Amino acid sequence: MPYRILALDLDGTLTNDDKNITPNTFDALIRLQERGVRIVLASGRPVYGIMPLVEQLRLKTFGGFVLAFNGGKIIDCASQQIIAEQALPADQIPGITAAAKAGGHAILSYRNEEIITETPDNPYVLEEARINKMNVRRVENFMEALPDIVDKCLIVDDPARLEPTEQALATQTRGSLSVYRSAPFFLEVVPTGIDKAASLRRLLQQIGIEPAEMVAIGDGYNDLTMLELAGMGVAMANAQDSVKAAAQYVTRADNNHDGVAEAIAHLFTA
Q1: What pLDDT was estimated at residue 176?
Q2: Sign of CA dihedral 243, 249, 255, 256
Q3: In Å, how far are 27, 37, 56 from 262, measured between CA atoms?
Q4: What is the pLDDT of residues 199-237, one digit of tens each?
Q5: Can you name the CATH fold of 5-86+194-267?
Q6: Given this model, what pLDDT does residue 238 score?
Q7: Burial of 15 from C-beta contacts in 10 A (0-12 / 13-18 / 19+)
Q8: Which residues contact 69 (CB under 8 A, 6 or more apart)?
Q9: Beta-bridge mates of residue 188
Q10: pLDDT per residue over 58-104, tens digit each?
């Protein structure tokens, strides 16, 4: 069965360590779309942080899709319509904020085109801003500054310091929130049931493509479910060991050396 759709993680997969798409990978993705294969950019990033890559890869022209907030928001690039969105329950946000402050961590979310936080100089907050090319706005009261619809909160700190908070939040919110690491220093808090596989399954049903017809490529823990869903799950050479173990194919090249282009050449035949 030929593959009809390619789901791509962004950081550590599609983009190199400078957060750019390398020329060879760019060319491979444009040629793939010209052959009719559709692309889904699946990331924990907010929508604003994904849209420059949407423009670069011409997903509006070719009919691609965005899964932002780890799948919490699905967007059809051609129509620019939101296919689905699931926000954090408002009554859970005080507990999330309290857990972050009790652990001495920074917490952030997103409002329009900005990151909002009470700790704008935190190095991990600044890293999130760098990844997404977003400005950081300092607010006096995090909860009061949040928009009406909050797709996710991100708790950031040194990896070891996050562990007790991760365990406590996961226990405290079991059944109502999903709590996971998208990077060792990023603790994501999103609505329960939100992961890349669940959102991809919903998207595939809507557009009439079977999971067996999908290739998914990733490197991190939050990519595991979509690699397991896909007809072909691909781990990058720089992927976490558990991700490599779950994959059917592991690239020889990493995200800095055209690993995605290698996977395309190996899996998508003319």
Answers
A1: 87
A2: positive
A3: 12, 16, 20
A4: 999 999 999 999 999 999 999 988 999 999 999 999 999
A5: Rossmann fold (3.40.50)
A6: 97
A7: buried
A8: 44, 45, 46, 47, 151, 152, 190, 194
A9: 154, 180
A10: 999 999 999 999 999 999 999 999 999 999 999 999 999 999 999 99
Q: Which two tokens stand for residue 159?
A: 């990896």
Separation between Cα atoms, residue 13 and residue 10, nearest integer Å: 5
Percent composition of the chain: helix, strand, coil (DSSP 3-state, to 5): 40, 25, 35
Give residue 47's pLDDT. Answer: 96
Token output for 244: 């490599």
Looking at residue 101, its pLDDT comes to 97
Q: Where are the domains of the chain?
A: 5-86+194-267, 90-191
Question: 9 — phi, psi (to 5°)?
Answer: -65, 160
Please answer whether residues 66 and 47 qualify as being in contact, where contact means their C-beta atoms are separated by less than 8 angstroms.
Answer: yes
- Mean residue pLDDT of the chain comes to 95
> Per residue in 138-173, pLDDT tens?
999 999 999 999 999 999 999 999 999 999 999 988
Q: In this predicted structure, what is the pLDDT of residue 270?
A: 54
Name the region of 69 (left: φ>0; alpha: ψ -120 to 50; beta: rest).
Answer: left
CA distance 243 to 218: 8
Residue with tokens 């017809």: 213
Fold classified for 90-191: 3.30.1240
Two tokens at 239?
Answer: 């992927």
Distance (Å, whole) CA 217 – CA 136: 30
CB 185 within 8 A of CB 197: no
